[in-house]
# Entry
Amino acid sequence: MKSIVILISGRGSNMEAIVRAAIPGARIAAVISNRPNAGGLAFAAAQGIATAVVDHTAYADRAAFDAALAEAIDSHAPDLVVLAGFMRVLTADFVRHYEGRLINIHPSLLPSFTGLHTHKRALEAGVRVHGTTVHFVTAELDCGPIIIQAVVPVMTGDTEESLTARVLAQEHRIFPQAVRWIVEDRVCIDGNIARVSGAGEPGVMISPPPESV
Ligand code: GRF
# Structure
């Protein structure tokens, strides 16, 4: 049984998708938030999952916060740590401590649109396709080995809200898929490439055609 700790900062819909996937061989040991009022905490608690808050505003600097966060995480001895809408930049020491077992979901087709406000920036750039990426976390922000991506069309008349909703629906598909592959020991890191073993696993999901989106 693999033990998983999920970190959130807010709504937690991606965490919820992973919990609801009930991945065989995986146990969600805890959900930890850096914000006391994160909506996702209530869902996790209602599922009987241990929850904790490590409030970043209570710490003098990033290093102190990351040390407290790591202590909370390590008390569950996780095999995998999942950043699911966790909105804090982590120190290099923290990232190194979890090397190879720390994954994140980023709402763009990396390496395009690292950082914040990805949907707005995609609309402004006039790209025809957009999407989301699950990747291993490395010290460089939003740059680690890519495990899976989902592609969605950008449609005429899209607003930031409509594009966000289209991408989010795909996030809820690919994040549990990435976790499942890792739990099944099918993902290995080869330099900056994450290789998924097993037939018929292209590591990409295409959203339904525009008419039905
Ligand atoms: C997701 O879009 C994720 O890609 C981004 O933050 C959002 C979190 O949403 N990092 P939720 O809290 O999982 O609902």
